[in-house]
Fold:
Amino acid sequence: MLGTYYYHEIIRKTIISFGTLFNQIHIRHQESNGNNFSDTRVPIAYGPRQKFLARIVQQPELNKPIQITLPRMSFEMVSIQYDPTRKSSVVQTFKACDDGGNIKKVFMPVPYNIGFELNILCKLNDDALQIIEQILPYFQPAFNLTIDLVESIGEKRDIPMVLDSISFQDDYEGDFSTRRALIYTLSFTAKTYLFGPVAESTDGLIRKVQVDLYTNTDTTTAKREVRYTVTPDPYDAGPDDNFGFDENWEFLGDSKDFSPTRKIDL
Structure:
């Protein structure tokens, strides 16, 4: 069972999608008359907060004239945890078509929560507040992102990005040589799904659906009254074709039952 190679890049796509949410944040500084004299796009990079704090207080290159520029943002994945509240059957499968129109069989995905931390580092509190106010109104407390989880079968899902908490830290203590840094930390949870290998399916497309309706819920004594049948039109239509449906209602007065294995009324 284990050892079958597959890689859907789901965790990687989730990380990239999360970072893309915040790559167009801007801050503006105004003059006393209200005119804007600077509009700065806040850079964002993947990495832990401690890495950027170290860059602030240290000089990595002796010939570099300036230190790290503030404001800036960093984010990182901090946890991966199974979510039992969204669990589905472990044996349930569904069928999908790949890019070539071939039928594939896929087991239901496994729900996992991926934890993220977004760190906002600023020198001025007004800069930090500008960034915060451009983020918080979109999370109530979740913001849905559509991610192509399994590209080979076109499996796209809306992944909620849930804002869990906000914390604030002001490193103002120290001597005059210590650089101040305002740090806002936003914790998020991405409720994503992980898929297993995509297998070939020996079954064909479902081209007929038949439903028998009974007089009450006790099918041991109740008699079937109506049979509903639906088939595609045309019958040999493919998944990507333009097709409709043929519907048929048949009223029955017998006490027979349909055998799914023998495909006859008994």
